[in-house]
Design a protein that fits this description.
Layout lengths: L17 H12 L4 H16 L11 H28 L26 H29 L12 H26 L2 H6 L20 H7 L13 H18 L5 E4 L2 E5 L3 H9 L11 H4 L8 H16 L1
Antiparallel strand pairs: 1-2
Length: 315
């Protein structure tokens, strides 16, 4: 059973608790975490596999195709390994699994008759396309001086700070586009593709309608206005794409010798896939608490949810 009540970032709690604040940062940045692993992947990508800025001044299929292949392989590697580990080999069994049921390998609601095939199609086709499109646009703009470039030798502190701020910006952006996608017309025609996944798996994270991919990755447009470095761009877009896979594993954490080693999904978002109208955001910024859509996993929160639903049915 996941630990409840679910707690949000201590940086938005009162009174301030310095110990909880330090623990929050330590757990997300100074241990083996998604943030650090994605930062490492971004550094490897920029150092050895990515075109240089000077090569991206003119649109060319050569460097665009290189980025697309790199992104395709990254998603296959990350989502594929997670799916193989948790659902094919079932190395961890149901330990720390939020929903004991297996993925739906058959189902009429899926475009290709099964959850995994459906998820892989939307992720690898539309998902990688829009991921690559935004990456290409931002790098082309930066290489031509249309997007401001941050020099880490001149602004080393700001260079480091941007890595800490990126997940906060992603959280802010995600909450508001997510609320928009739950507007009835957009939900019916767009967001319902993602919500076919009640019991999620690694391939579910980027399984979205193309229009949702378009607005999901639009948080990247901030780099057209705020000075950043190419490494920030890669960390940002890979954080959105790869963390979508890891956070939808359906498991709380990776166990090594029965010890929690790497936090993966959150019970907070797992409940959103189960109940739809709660927990639209992330725990980095408590938008759900501020707007009355927070479910902390407790019986009291669930009773409030049922009460809200009852009032809706009466109106």
């Amino acid at each position: 059973m996941p630990t409840v009540p679910i707690v949000v970032s201590p940086f938005f709690s009162w009174p301030p608790n310095p110990y909880r604040m330090f623990s929050w940062i330590f757990k997300r940045w100074l241990t083996i975490t998604e943030n650090l692993l994605i930062l490492l992947i971004s550094l490897v990508s920029w150092t050895w596999f990515h075109p240089r800025l000077i090569d991206m001044q003119n649109f060319s299929l050569n460097w665009i195709f290189k980025i697309w292949v790199h992104n395709l392989l990254l998603l296959i590697l990350v989502a594929g390994i997670l799916h193989w580990f948790f659902y094919i080999r079932q190395v961890q069994g149901n330990k720390l699994k939020y929903d004991p049921r297996n993925l739906q390998y058959r189902g009429k609601q899926f475009t290709f008759g099964g959850q995994v095939r459906d998820n892989m199609f939307w992720s690898l086709s539309s998902g990688v396309f829009f991921w690559t499109a935004y990456e290409v646009l931002i790098f082309w703009a930066m290489s031509n001086g249309y997007a401001p470039l941050l020099d880490p030798t001149i602004h080393p502190v700001l260079f480091v700070i941007w890595f800490f701020l990126t997940p906060l910006w992603i959280s802010f952006h995600f909450y508001w586009i997510h609320r928009l996608l739950h507007w009835r017309p957009l939900y019916k025609w767009v967001h319902s593709v993602h919500h076919r996944n009640v019991n999620v798996g690694p391939w579910s994270g980027l399984s979205m309608h193309p229009f949702e991919h378009l607005i999901f990755f639009s948080s990247m447009l901030i780099h057209l206005f705020i000075p950043t470095h190419p490494l920030h761009i890669l960390f940002h877009v890979q954080h959105q794409a790869l963390q979508a896979a890891s956070s939808h594993t359906g498991y709380e954490s990776l166990l090594i010798k029965d010890k929690k080693t790497l936090d993966l999904g959150t019970f907070h978002h797992q409940m959103h896939h189960r109940y739809f109208e709660i927990n639209y955001g992330t725990l980095e910024i408590p938008w759900d608490k501020w707007f009355g859509t927070f479910h902390d996993g407790t019986f009291t929160s669930h009773e409030k949810l049922k009460h809200r639903r009852g009032n809706k049915e009466k109106s």
